[in-house]
Amino acid sequence: MMQQLRTDLELADREAIATYLQSEFPFVEDSGELSPHVGGRTAGLVRLQSFRLEKYGKQRNFLDGEVSQLSPYVSRGCLELEELRQWALKQSRSKSVEAFVSELAWRAFFHLVYEEEGDRILKDMEKPKVPMNQHQRSLPEDIAAGTTGIPSMDTLIHMLKETGYLHNHARMYLASYVVHFRKVSWRAGADWMYSLLIDGDFASNHLSWQWVASTFSTKPYIFNRENLERYAGSLLPGDPKQGDPFNYSYEELAERLFEGAYMPEPSGRSPGQYQ
Amino acid sequence: MPSLIWFNEDSLNPEHQMVKDYADAPKVYVFDAPYLQAQNIAKHRIQFIYEALLEIPSIQIYKGETVAVLLQLIKDLAISEVVTTETPNHMIKGWQNELQKSIDLVTYPEIFPVTDHSSPRRFSRYWRKHERSWLTV
Ligand SMILES: Cc1cc2nc3c(=O)[nH]c(=O)nc-3n(C[C@H](O)[C@H](O)[C@H](O)COP(=O)(O)OP(=O)(O)OC[C@H]3O[C@@H](n4cnc5c(N)ncnc54)[C@H](O)[C@@H]3O)c2cc1C
């Protein structure tokens, strides 16, 4: 069976495109909203123009900080990684330039691993550093629906569903919440996030989930209330104080979540980003 | 030798080198319905891809099973060579391998400054080893 789709729709009329695609792909769940991320190379170049690279180094870990939001364009190939690298290296050399290029390198690094491992990246790359054999294999309904009852996590889930994009730190929080706080297998979480992201990419997505889980890193990634407030506080609603699963020191969290199987560095700080 | 440019979802660039090299070739994209359904791909990704495709001049967009659609087009248009881009995506790779059984495939690689496959499995080590190349024009 092969069927040709229309190509005479006006790019500017995104509502009409959405309606048309809904009729062609009736099995796709419709969140009702249009993503702010417009497809195509032209839109990608416009985004690049407005990206303030000089702020990136200091702000990139903050949910309201300056990041490029180019991943949909890079993952879908509208912009090429190498052209972004060349673009960045033309700017005057700074910590921001280096930070940005090293993030591009993360993407290449994940791709190299995927290239070599193929679909083995869909399974544990290494032994987990904390117990995980009891983890639930399917994603709980309340997570899929964004009705966990924890306002911060529900907000992130809704952002993901409504826009098809999340800030890197938000992805880390959500993945950590799913895997470590909710004890769901990283694969169930990764498949779910992959399906929702415009930039969905098995390499960057599934290997990042494994990084969070500790099957592709030396330790599990966890966060606490202090970290969440610091990097995401301005965008997220506050969570109820009572029964707050995040309001602990890292030592306490490790004890609660992993029953002592893993202990964080005594510094008590989360690195906040990959290592 | 009639060629066919086949875009995959990891390379939706109207200015890609392959488009320049094969300026006269028909250009196609296939929304793989079984893949979209199996992976539960959300509407935003489909819309993004579709919008990106509308920017590719004279693109033909199909819906169906990728390999079956391409084989049909190859037959109908008497194509002798399919031009496409490399991706690590194992699903797309699978289609490419399948196709290669019946036709020549020209694949354009992704461009990185360092394509060292013996790369360490930790980014920090990868970066230490290759930082200089990445930060050099
Ligand atoms: C759980 C989880 C899942 C993820 N899934 C995906 C995914 O499916 N697809 C995807 O492209 N990225 C994924 N990432 C990586 C990262 O979150 C996004 O690439 C980044 O947030 C995109 O936002 P940006 O374009 O503003 O990034 P910027 O900070 O502006 O970075 C510029 C570009 O570098 C690349 N990049 C930046 N950070 C990373 C990273 N950590 N890993 C790989 N590439 C990076 C992206 O192409 C990005 O567009 C995931 C991260 C986590 C923690």
UniProtKB/TrEMBL annotation, chain A:
Reported cofactor(s): FAD
GO biological process: circadian regulation of gene expression; entrainment of circadian clock by photoperiod
Keywords noted in UniProt: Chromophore, FAD, Flavoprotein
Gene3D superfamilies according to UniProt: 1.25.40.80, DNA Cyclobutane Dipyrimidine Photolyase, subunit A, domain 3
Textual note on the cofactor: Binds 1 FAD per subunit.
Superkingdom: Bacteria
InterPro entries: Crypto/Photolyase_FAD-like_sf (IPR036134), Cryptochr/Photolyase_FAD-bd (IPR005101), Cryptochrome/DNA_photolyase_1 (IPR002081)
Pfam families for the chain: FAD_binding_7 (PF03441)
Molecular function via GO: deoxyribodipyrimidine photo-lyase activity; DNA binding; FAD binding
A GO cellular-component term linked to this record: cytoplasm
All residue ranges annotated as the Cryptochrome/DNA photolyase FAD-binding domain in the record: 100-221
Protein residues bound to FAD: Y56, F100, E103, L104, A105, W106, R107, A108, F109, F110, D199, G200, D201
Family: Belongs to the DNA photolyase family.
The protein, known as: Deoxyribodipyrimidine photo-lyase
Organism in which the protein naturally occurs: Drouetiella hepatica Uher 2000/2452
Automatic annotation (TrEMBL), chain B:
Organism encoding this protein: Drouetiella hepatica Uher 2000/2452
Lineage: Bacteria, Bacillati, Cyanobacteriota, Cyanophyceae, Oculatellales
Name of protein: Uncharacterized protein
